[in-house]
Amino acid sequence: MNNSQVINTILILVGGVLLLYSISADDVSPYFKIIGLVIIMLGLYRATNFWVATKDDHNEDNETEG
Question: What is the pTM of this model?
């Protein structure tokens, strides 16, 4: 697994944990929700950019084999 994929996964998980914590706990600052949402969106943004950059990698592998 690529290092950037690991970072993206960690960002998404940390953001999700912050959101779940801020929803389930009482008297939590609304900034936890905002920060959690921003971290999730950052992880998703990085993941989709990685997927777009590597979407044609399987075509290059097929051309070299055949």
Answer: 0.76
